[in-house]
Design brief:
alpha+beta, 4-stranded antiparallel β-sheet, 20% strand, elongated
């Protein structure tokens, strides 16, 4: 077996054909830093506007206010871990309703699948947090160190005062952006005006500073240093995203039928009997992951389209048709090569399935949210003892009732026992025993009551009788119920 004129074994050792001496051969390619070139154009403008939009959304959203009335936070988007609640505009999600957040995640995944089937890796190229922050960090680097060639020359040169100053300023700005990113993340879990004050004065608490530090550290490391290696080696998304493509998905590709055979040319050169690609390598120079799209669709391609802008600029210089590198579907390219009519197929089985699933999930979530109750009750039967026989022959069972009041005001609830005739209830610590109790629950809280239920033995069906605890909000009329069992002696 030969590899670069060397025979290698499983350990990575090699024997040269000429000398016969063993020589260590690396099985891993050495990392080459990617220095993308700046190239204006359509896709560059889209990325710039997308970066601005996503940064504004990320940093400004926690500052939006939403009036929920008294005893409730007024932050529009807040994940209140201490209060164990999530606030999404008018929605208030309790821990018992975590399935709504699960539904949002599933909806986001289906939306991503749908967008991928239509537009290819549009998420990776324009919306992924790694792509956005890497683009911003590279922009800072370009401002301070120049464009691609200047940065490469600076990196290869010796360390001078000017080089050290530029690198230091760059790293400092990266660090400030990273800290701001960490603070922006913490703002979604805390009241942001209060957080801003305590964070700057040093009174925010170690948990806040730790979370900000972790997010800032990963932002600095991944966007500043790892960059394209995250997309190529760390991210699992590209490894199964190709399964969502088909021949009608829009992807970034090179029209080989038009570009080959390639070769050097300048303006005025005849392009008869040759391809339009002049092998300028601009498409490689602008690529944020450093790939050559002319080699075909690749895992490392994030679909940003910057190579399209670069190639179009060269085609314009040579007075050749644009879109040699294009953002198009495979079927449209094949039709164009054959001179056949070109059409988009946005509606196809794959996209229909995704659209139907998204629509169904949205409708289910809307129905669930619009009909959900602001009242919930949990009933736990005491296991030791299962029942007690009183002196008058009646049977007593113990229960723990947990009443959840999801409203921002105190409410009074009427609780009754159904399923046994003549049954009464009594809260432990109270002298009142009746067929119906009135229990008060503080706003936005869970109240726990230990309750004794008593019933005549003749009203029981035997060892276990099905019963229901019924609750009714005396202020709103809202009702809820929970089934349980009433234990008694064997008959």
């Amino acid at each position: 077996m030969t590899l670069n004129e060397k025979e290698t074994d499983a350990s990575g050792s090699g024997r040269t054909e000429k000398t016969g001496k063993l020589e260590k051969v690396s099985l891993y390619a050495e990392h080459v830093k990617v220095q993308p070139k700046h190239m204006p154009g359509l896709f560059r403008s889209i990325k710039n506007w997308a970066n601005v939009a996503f940064m504004l959304i990320y940093f400004l959203t926690p500052w939006l206010r939403w009036d929920r009335g008294p005893n409730a936070p007024d932050q529009a988007i807040l994940l209140d871990l201490e209060g164990r609640r999530a606030y999404l505009l008018w929605l208030e999600i309790w821990p018992q309703e975590i399935y709504y957040l699960t539904g949002l995640l599933v909806l986001g995944a289906l939306g991503l699948f749908f967008a991928t089937a239509l537009l290819g890796r549009v998420w990776c190229g324009f919306a992924c947090i790694q792509t956005v922050f890497t683009d911003i960090f590279v922009m800072v680097e370009r401002w301070l160190e120049g464009d691609r060639n200047a940065r490469i020359k600076l990196d290869r040169g010796p360390m001078t005062v000017g080089k050290f100053t530029r690198k230091t300023i760059k790293v400092t700005i990266w660090a400030l952006i990273s800290v701001a990113t960490g603070f922006g993340w913490a703002a979604y879990f805390n009241d942001v005006p209060t957080l801003a004050t305590t964070f700057l004065t040093g009174d925010a608490g170690w948990g806040v500073y730790l979370s900000v530090g972790i997010v800032a550290g990963f932002c600095f490391l991944l966007a500043g240093w790892a960059r394209e290696q995250v997309c190529i080696y760390m991210c699992p998304w590209p490894r199964f995203q190709a399964s969502m493509f088909d021949e009608d998905s829009l992807i970034v590709t090179y029209e080989k039928w038009r570009g080959e055979p390639r070769g050097f040319a300048k303006k005025g050169t005849s392009f008869e009997n040759r391809g339009h690609c002049v092998d300028c390598t601009l498409c490689v120079q602008v690529c944020p992951t450093g790939i050559d799209i002319r080699n075909g669709s690749q895992l490392a391609c994030i679909g940003c389209g910057l190579c399209v802008d670069a190639c179009n600029s060269m085609m314009d210089r040579l007075d050749l048709p644009r879109w040699l590198i294009t953002y198009d579907s495979t079927n449209r390219q094949l039709a164009r090569a054959r001179g056949e009519p070109i059409k988009h197929r946005l509606v196809r089985p794959r996209t229909i399935i995704y659209a139907v699933l998204i629509t169904v999930l949205v409708l289910v979530m809307i129905l669930g949210i619009s009909t959900r109750s602001r009242l919930d009750v949990t009933v736990l039967h005491e296991r030791s003892p299962l029942f007690v026989t009183l002196t008058d022959g009646s049977i007593r069972n113990g229960y723990t009732l947990k009443i959840l009041n999801k409203r921002p005001e105190k409410n009074t609830y009427a609780v009754s026992l159904r399923g046994v005739e003549g049954g009464t209830l009594k809260v432990v610590g109270s002298d009142i025993e009746a067929g119906e109790l009135q229990l008060e629950v503080e706003p936005n809280s869970v109240a726990t009551f230990r309750v004794y239920a008593t019933a005549p033995q003749k009203a029981l069906e035997g060892k276990a009788t099905d019963v229901t605890f019924a609750l009714r909000n005396l202020h709103t009329g809202e009702a809820a119920s929970r089934g349980s069992l009433f234990a008694g002696p064997q008959r």
